[in-house]
Each structure stands twice: as C-alpha cells, then as structure tokens.
Amino acid sequence: MATWRDICGLAERLPDARLGEAHEGSPAWYAGRHQFARLRWDDDERELLQVWTGDMNAGAEFAGRPQVFPFVQTFEYRVTCWGYLDQLDLREAAELILDSYGIRGGPRRRAAVVPEEFLP
After folding, report:
1. Angle of helix 90-105 versus helix 4-11 axis, rounded to 10
2. pTM for the full model?
3. Which of 10, 93, 87, 89 has its CA nearest to residue 47?
4. What's the start-to-end Cα distance of the chain, in Å?
5. How many CB atoms neighbour CB 47 within 10 A?
6. Per-residue pLDDT reduced to its tens digit, 24-49
C-alpha cells in the first residue's frame, strides 16, 4: 500500500519538482508550472492520487479497475486518473508518478530521469 508520504519521498527526488498547493489548497507536486501528482480525498476521506499519462490506451485500462481508479478522464492528448493510495502498491504508484512527471514536466525533465533509480 502506498501513502502520500511515499509519493512525496519519490517526487522530492525528481529534478525541478516542487511541492505546492492546487487551486483549492490540496497538496500537489509540480514540474515547472504543471501538476504531476495531487492528493485528493473521496467523500469517505480516503486518499486519492491524481496523475496524468500520455498513453491514450491507459484510460481503458484504468477504467477496467474501478476499485482502484474510480475516476478516469480522457482528453485529446492525455489521460488523468485518480487512484486510491490504499489500493496501489509502491511500484505501481512509482510508475504512475514517473509517467505523470514525464508527460507534465516535458521532454527535458523526462530525459533527466533514469526510471530504475526510482522504482522500488
């Protein structure tokens, strides 16, 4: 099971990543001006991790796992999903964060990361 603390431990090691707040005050990690990880809560106060991907097929994969990813939205060039942190293991959470950082942070930041150095 992943926690927001785990997400922060990974995100703080990424080049140019900084912790800030989303528009309504929830904690969010940024790469430049774009969020790549955001903490949300459902109506029962369960923690959700919001991430983005450029893999347009991921939307269908995430939607097929509603117990883990209750919200999936596909845009023209990216997909965003919310995943229950208590349903994600550390490796899957790390993979989601790295993918989101890469798509939201741009090619220069993506190229500066060696994924194997961040995966548990």
Report:
1. 50
2. 0.92
3. 87
4. 13
5. 17
6. 999 999 999 999 999 999 999 999 99
